[in-house]
Amino acid sequence: SASYRRNMFLKKTLTMDTLNPQVKAVEYAVRGPIVIKAGEIEKYLEEGGTKPFSEVIKANIGDAHAMGQQPITFLRQVVALCTFPELMDSPSFPEDAKWRARRILQGCGGHSLGSYSASPGVECIRKDIAAYIEQRDEGVPSDWENIYLTTGASDGIMTILRLLVSGKDSSRTGVMIPIPQYPLYSAAISEMDAVQVNYYLDEDNCWALDINELYRAYQAAKLHCQPKVICIINPGNPTGQVQSKKCIEEVLHFAYEENLFVMSDEVYQDNVYTPDCQFHSFKKVLYEMGPEYFNSVELASFHSTSKGYTGECGFRGGYMEVINMDPEVKAQLVKLLSVRLCPPLAGQAAMDVIVNPPQPDEHSYKQFHQEKSSVLGALADKAKLTEQILNAVPGIKCNPVQGAMYAFPRIFIPPKAVEEAKALGMQPDMFYCLRLLEETGICVVPGSGFGQKDGTYHFRMTILPSIEKLKVLLGKVRDFHISFLKEYSALE
Amino acid sequence: SASYRRNMFLKKTLTMDTLNPQVKAVEYAVRGPIVIKAGEIEKYLEEGGTKPFSEVIKANIGDAHAMGQQPITFLRQVVALCTFPELMDSPSFPEDAKWRARRILQGCGGHSLGSYSASPGVECIRKDIAAYIEQRDEGVPSDWENIYLTTGASDGIMTILRLLVSGKDSSRTGVMIPIPQYPLYSAAISEMDAVQVNYYLDEDNCWALDINELYRAYQAAKLHCQPKVICIINPGNPTGQVQSKKCIEEVLHFAYEENLFVMSDEVYQDNVYTPDCQFHSFKKVLYEMGPEYFNSVELASFHSTSKGYTGECGFRGGYMEVINMDPEVKAQLVKLLSVRLCPPLAGQAAMDVIVNPPQPDEHSYKQFHQEKSSVLGALADKAKLTEQILNAVPGIKCNPVQGAMYAFPRIFIPPKAVEEAKALGMQPDMFYCLRLLEETGICVVPGSGFGQKDGTYHFRMTILPSIEKLKVLLGKVRDFHISFLKEYSALE
Ligand SMILES: Cc1ncc(COP(=O)(O)O)c(C=O)c1O
Ligand SMILES: Cc1ncc(COP(=O)(O)O)c(C=O)c1O
Predict the structure, then answer these.
(1) Which of these, B7, B10, B38, B113, could form a disulfide with B345 (CB 3.0-4.6 Å)?
(2) Model confidence, pTM
(3) How big is the A-B interface in CB pairs under 8 Å?
(4) Which CATH number fits domain A21-68+368-487: 3.40.50.1370, 3.40.1060.10, 3.40.50.980, 3.90.1150.10?
(5) A chain contacts of residue B67, beta-carbon cutoff 8 Å
């Protein structure tokens, strides 16, 4: 019969051969093989299996609540009030949360969190964000019409790249990214078929951005693509450095000279721990460089509800501020955002609380302030502790965790272990991290997932577990590392 | 000076000339020029300006809450409990809502809605969805590992297309879509540089899908691209038809024969109004065609929290079920989802309530059931009313609104008006809709934004306003249309 005949030749429509090759090219280590393995081990333990450890500790992803961090009460009160406005009548909710919720709902169609917002976001939230930025940047003007709410920072970053990337062959768009990087960037670049242009951060100098390296990378890239955009992550993920004002000036001057669009990923702007470091927004530094710069350099900066002291990843809230964008292009941006309709309203509401927190004269101020300081204080302690314990291990060297939520220590992997990994067709640091997982239950991400100088090896771990758990974790890493060195050392 | 020299040649990096041309090619009428105009008029009225009307009625977008529809209480209770678990102690929340919220939180990292979920969604919600589908489809098996939560259906549709679209020149992927269509499809196709392959729905036959037309479109497309996927919207947007089982069988047979991936957009599955129509899921029909079909045709179907009786657009909840996908490709799908981390957790929770609503023996059943029936009953009334009033207007012909949330009447536009529109460089139906907006304050979308047979004109309006408002709206449309005909008729 016809269908029998057809079946003899049956092939799926969508196979590894027909799949969009740009999707195939995407690499995404943060949720890659090691995390899948960790999940399997977790299931195995749950089902009564035994291992040399009793639980898997996931230090692979910057997911604060999953590590036990408690939500900021005020933020959740406002979002709950928006979700279920009947609570406005409840005496257990404070007035300052209620008026914020009322104001947000007034900005929503039908006064409901269930309606689509305008594609760039709810107007009053955009205005609150602009006011917040002005305050953060000590008076540098911010226009609310330059603010676009997003579905997490991820969405904003992908959207801006989508506008920028085009061309074929030697006219393909080059996107400059730091190495090591947060792998959203390399994944987006693969997916969009752009050219990844690596500039290496200087590990010997606390992962600082070296301007000469920028020029080198740019000149080399110009030979085979059109570099159009430079991405910076500050504070850095996975590297934890906080950029100095001078360094930011240099980057902006470089972008100005070479006519590059600047994307500054500032999702960790509230996560700065060391007293000698301070967060400087790219926008403020640009402003201080004078109108010549401030009125010309095209800059998009990104923020998120997922990090900071709130850690509200699941809300998928975020915003971007875009300055000096051509007005016609802006209309195209809005069109593109419109196709996906709008960012989630609960995430928009959560963002609003972050930019419009309780003020000293408000009822909720004290509790809010306590909760915020406690989260940030603990993170600072854990940053310090992580650096100290790791640096005491022979064969591990860890730069100070100045900001963000990760340590990215360099690990010495003995040549014998490198050989063994290669024989298994594996990156040496992947081999190392898999062994660490199998033997201790600790899940971290190999440095190769973020990029690193050839011949150097790292892993990324978050500093998010509670201080007790973190101590246990670091102790296990130390013991593992020492026995790993012993096992593969030529001396044995 | 150097910067002065530079400035003389100053050009932005991102201009209409350098913008990704695929973004430029995107068209998106639902939030296009007419909606921008409507916003301007609204502002003008707010600021005290005068018009021949006192308010703008936005019938351009399927946004139920914005039109005054009230949320389903139970859904909001569950989401509020998830958001602010302190409410678990409140006696004003029913136990059936509490246990659902507890169960969802148990599936979340750190029992918090603020953690990232696994990229395909919270496991217990995926399981609830699979159970729901099995029940809906009267026992057809559904595997929870084939379920992926999404950020609204839009996100799921874009993601599946992203996997499928590839190739250059004559090997570019062809995507078959109905005309008229929901413009997310044409926008995604432009953005991804695929080839849009139109198959025309049969207006004279209640917008039914005609299988001969499918073959025609397919054969024609094969000459210049590789058609790999067919998209169906059932119930239809903007056309409101509900497909018969026989017609779905024909489509599936066609896809089977021609080896096409099937995308069935079933976001309006709960929105069926006429007694002679019934929703049949593509999956169930495929199952009933026998294992030969059920085990081979690759099918992705999409659902959303935005439509149905909940209308929770702002939550950006949705899911897709994908069957017969190559396991290796599935791993690629998960990788792609991982780059954006996860769908919003509040949207996932809302989806869970939709697939796991109160049962007859539960406390909240009665109220839930009342609210649900009241929304769906009112929609059925409004569907009928809209069709009747429009069909009584000379020069307007409207097919029955069997399902979904829109009427898509055909309008006669006199040749003189067509000429005038063309002289203005405008589509005639855009000209018509702009006049309608200017004169009555009613905002509808021109048929050209969805596609229509050459020489025919339509507009799309939602049936979502309250029955009183809808009557006013339809009366104004009638009066406007009659005077428009008079103005441009040769007889005048
Ligand atoms: C540097 C950086 N940018 C962006 C993101 C994306 O976060 P989200 O999409 O949750 O806002 C992350 C998340 O870890 C990040 O570390
Ligand atoms: C046919 C159809 N598909 C998909 C969508 C997308 O809806 P959402 O992304 O809100 O789930 C819509 C919205 O109107 C629609 O009408």
Answers:
(1) B113
(2) 0.94
(3) 296
(4) 3.90.1150.10
(5) 110
